[in-house]
Amino acid sequence: MSSQAAENQDLCTRFAEESERRRVRIEQLLRSAGDAPKTLASLRSEVRAWIADAAQLGLPELAAALGSINAVVLTLNDSRDLGGRTAALKEWTARMCEIAAEIAAQPGFRHLSLAIQALRSEVTAQRTAKPAGTAAPAASPVASAERQARRILVCDDSPIIGEMMALELRARGHNVCLTSDPMEFDRQLEAFDPEMVFLDIQMPEMSGDEVCKRLRQQMNPVPVIFISSLPDAELAQLTRAAGADGFLSKQHGMEEICAYLEAMLAQFAF
Fold this sequence. Notes:
Blueprint: H1 3-31, H2 36-57, H3 60-74, H4 79-105, H5 113-127, H6 141-146, E1 151-155, H7 159-171, E2 175-179, H8 185-192, E3 196-200, H9 208-217, E4 224-228, H10 232-242, E5 246-249, H11 254-267
Parallel strand pairs: 1-2, 1-3, 3-4, 4-5
Helix pairs in contact: 1-2, 1-4, 2-3, 2-11, 3-5, 3-11, 4-5, 7-11, 9-10
């Protein structure tokens, strides 16, 4: 086994172990729902952290499925809501752990795409359904904020990929600023004030990871997602070293890229 393959295997194993820990923690929270506001805050924090784990591992479909679960959690307001969703949340998180264990046994997720998509479809279908024995939930300020259009800065020296991303994101209601010149990044950052940044890595004059490192040195906390055609193991290493928040391979289609973005947007409070 190559060193990269071994590193990937180790990351997948740790993800599976951490997923099981999160499942147990979520079940504990669901059993002790007496203080609903505190329980809901902890539940949301746990699911957001789970999304971040999947993002760091470079599993966009899994992050998107977790994002769908997070969207359900964001609609909950009190102990009655929790009671109506407890069984479903337990089932969904258990299935997530099964998928994570399969990924650890066989790194990658292409062989599990159908299982992940089925889970995501089920969660999405139930998101707007009224749970048995509950009243219709009041509108959640957090959930409403999640649906707002976001300001997204895309920096990619490939005009084709950049335009495709911008078109897809705008079709989803987001406000997108697109630049193909990393030397223009600072000006666009100041003028546009983005809530999330998509950065290509392999760009002339200044690489995306150098741009991100400079942002972090300036104490700018804007979420940064790397998008590149580099191998996942190399992308993961660059993401950690530069202080970025996740990465995505250009080998994925626009639908997967945008689903991943939605999951990441759900993770951050704006």
